[in-house]
Amino acid sequence: MKRGEAILVPLGAMIAGLLVFGLFCAALGLNPLAVYASIYKAGFGSWYSWQNTLVRASPLLLCGLCTAIPARAGMIVIGNEGAVVAGGLGAATVGLATLSLPPVLSLTIMALSAMVCGGIWIAFGAALQHYRGVSAVISGLLLNYLAVALMNQLIEGPLRDPSSFNSPASYPLTPDHRLAYFAGTHIHHGLIFGAVACVLAWFLIDRTTFGFAMKIAGGNVRAARLAGLPVGRLVVIAGFLGGACAGLAGMIEVAAVHGRANESLNAGYGYSGILVAFLARQNPLVIVLVSLLTGGLLASGGVLQREHDLPDATIAVLQGILFLFILLSDTLYGRLPFFRSRTPEPKPHAIAA
Amino acid sequence: MNALKTPPPHLEACGISKRFGSVQALEDVSINVQPGSFQALLGENGAGKSTIVKCLMGFYHADSGEIRINGTPTRIASPQAARRLGLGMVFQHFTLIPSMTVAENLILARPNLPFVIDWKSETRQLADFLKQAPFQVDPHSRVSTLSAGQKQKVEILKELYLETRLLILDEPTSVLTRDEADEVLGFIHRLVKKGELSALLITHKFREVMAYCDEVTVLRRGRFVGGGKTASLDVSGMAEMMMGEARVRNEAVGTRSPAGRSVLRIEGLRARGDNGLEVLHGIDLTVRAGEIVGIAGVSGNGQRELVEVIAGQRGATGGRISVNDEDHRPTRAMLRNHKFCTLPEEPLKNAAVARMTVAENMAFGVFDQPPFQRAGFLLDRKAIARLGRDLIAKFSVHPPSPDAPIGELSGGNVQRAILARELSSGQVSVLVAANPVFGLDFKAVDFIHERLLQTRNQGVAVLLLSEDLDELLELADRVLVMSGGMIVHETTPEKADPAAIGRQMAGHHS
Amino acid sequence: MQSQPETLGLWGIAVALAGGAMRGSIPYMFVSLGECLTEKSGKINLGMEVILLMGAVTAFGVSDVTGSPWLGVLAAALVGMTLGALHAWLTQQPSVNDVAAGIAMIIFGSGLAFFFGKRFVAPMAPQLPLIDLGSWSSAGAIRSALRISPLFFIGIALAFALHWIFTRTSWGLKVRAAGDDPQAARALGINVNRVRFIAITIGGALAAIGGAHLTLYFPGIWSEGISGGQGLMAVALVIFAQWSPRRCLAAALLFGGAQALGPSLQSLGVNGYYHLFNASPYLLTLGVMIATCTPHRRLAGMPGALGRK
How crowded is residue C207: how many other Cβ atoms within 10 Å of its Cβ? Predict the structure, then answer.
């Protein structure tokens, strides 16, 4: 694939998606330009809005990886939301149990247990698909519902803080057992986790023999088997790594943003992560960029409500439209005249037939 | 079948040309099918045979040229239009819906089917039709349960049911045994002689042309290169027209040392097919060092599954594969220890990742070994690129660009690239190859055949599966016949009787 | 479900469960029939969940505005057709696969449903009239348990109609041909893309009617979680039903029953694991999928072209 094509096609799809969203706004009687301006202002207009964007980008980075890493091994993962919830629950449970330990140790254990919970959550779906032929898409969505049921059971049952009346929540972590903020900002250290995870994922996929084996298994299972690769193990490990990232996102939400496990764990970062991964064409480094953009969109939800009286689901509509266009743009690869490769084209099948 | 009273149409195609992108598929080709004649259209893969009949059937529209029916210039806009003119076609691949019954398939093919089907009257009509039909098939049996030969007969029944007067057959015998082929073609021959049908047979089998056809048209690379009454032609003349130049085999590779100890041994191998039923019922065979063992058989008799089990793409339900008396399973460690290589059919589907580069595809066997792996986990991409350039030069893969996705290469070059990978990963002691030259041009076929013989002469145990009996008789030292998931016959090329092998392939083991 | 009086015995629980199964099966029935039609044509529509959602919100809105619940059902069907058509068009683009298109539809459709749902703050829209099956009983609880939506009977009729269409009409044969072997179907002169487009579009309409039931039946309040994965489970249910419309019916009743389990147990006083019991349909679906699927062979009754580009 040509490099220019790899950048221009998704960019064009995004612009087309934004235009259609503009039409949607115009149909509602709003000035699209004013809506765009609000989104820009809320996401990227000031240092304050940048901070909001970065806070939202941290879980997105990790949720994007949850889809992008298994995608390299040929598995479409959309159970991100469930893995975030599972990770968050794991982190909260362990975090509350280790309040007596030094904070650094407790946070490390929280992160690890969140990664294990999220990892197992996704690896289970991957294993079901590989060994039992159960579509990972269906099992992933079912597991999302199960994770939410489990969360409700826990935060209304054993973990429940009796002082949380209206919306049930777990007991809170003590302030020193929460993730710290960068000095002078409200950006928490979770951002580092996300950025480091993206770089590590890129390195794993692009520079190691494990990543190479994963690419073979993801590209053609039959060829991978022929080469003697342990396809099942590769797929399950890829699922685990992806799930671990999403689990870590859950831990960040618990340990940095809310300080406890509550229904906000199920806030849709998982679903946005799918969009991020597809927009980035499953490339971990591009995910960094796309997460910033998407984080900005998510950050603008409140402003749209205040300034244009649009419900917060407006951003969900915009995400949906963007996803449709990204999907459609896939048909353009290799078909744009100025990117036609100069190597001889494969002969049309019809002639040999 | 009252419509059989009208005579078959006189079909003429004059000066047909057709271009696909940069490829001139047909150039100024003419065909003349007189009413009541059995014509052959002969040519190699890619000669344009299918293209011209698809123009006749309205699937494609010619860029230039004219089609005349009974002398009237006619534009055939669609397959439906062709059908109205009495033209029908039996394809290389079946056009029956596997999950439906024979009756449903016949009804479905009928034009102008009413929305609500009156099954009572349809079944009655169908029964009447089948009563006078030449083959007997249970109309209520599901197509997926029929054998290939029966399916091909249903295809022909379908054409007769649709009152086709000029039947085009596109390599109809490619999935049939010789006896089945004779039965099907003989039947059409009788209908043609009775004047009820004209037929145009696309084939590359000289035997069928000589036995059944009145006239032949030979195409090569999209051009008309000869033809005439079959009575006035002989096989070698037709072969020369079809292939252009005589094929010269490099004799140097033909010498070999006698076969050595047994290397690859398969004992009692069993496996299930895609439908969950057992397709391999205990395969036993041995391949010794320095010999090519060929497995002949009509496709669909378990060969594909056998290769898949050997390649690790399908689990075995019983039996054992061993190399030099050690158990063999397709893990990387064992593949390396046993120097075991597999060249499956359709390499792009079975052995390559289309979107990875040629060099990357060539590294599948060695990427986790030094020098390609460093420090136990790092990938050396420069070393892979070097390997790619090396092998591309050695096996003359075209285009010589290691960074091109392998999916962009032609079939022959993909096959070369995969062959290069399999034969280059250190020493080889076992090579399993399935239909390695399927769909390739002569140059590629000769190249790959030469490599196979060379490999054998180096003392490698070669297991070669092919649907082309001639290929096996030419290359193999021993030939096994596979039928119904079992090895039913063994012979050597010197002693082989093609007719006997054909009967064995068809499952008549006596 | 309504709170049951304490006088209810085990027999009453059984009736409540049966009534719950009949009520709860309606969305499963419509979505699985819609998905059955879609998959018979050779394509998967994973976006059924959001078609259900959009059907629910549309029916609610139209019923609320016009006062006619049947107009709400009709409007839901139209919206379902539109979404089905969009999915059909997407999946027929080169290099777009069914699953990715389904994911796109899920994200896009749920965004739309939530967006429009926000505008409908009315507590309850006019409901569909109910059919009384329990008039023989004097117990009010049984009577209320057996008040069944007419959509239940329409769904049953549809299942048989679909079976008839698949076996007795030329269009049904064409759908099956397109789904089993599109190449052969094309050679037979069948316009595979058109047949599929129509099948997927009608499938969307059916699923949306299932959604209409969600808001036009007690309690009839629109909420974002109203579909609760039922559309998705119905997709799994089609596999379980081996792509047969009549078996879809039976499977829908089973799933409806599983859904009624949590509330029924709650009415018995088992409150401890409320959320986990409510998750039983998801567990059932997962269990059924694990039991019926296999990576080693094609599933019984599976259309040949399913899952292949």
Answer: 35
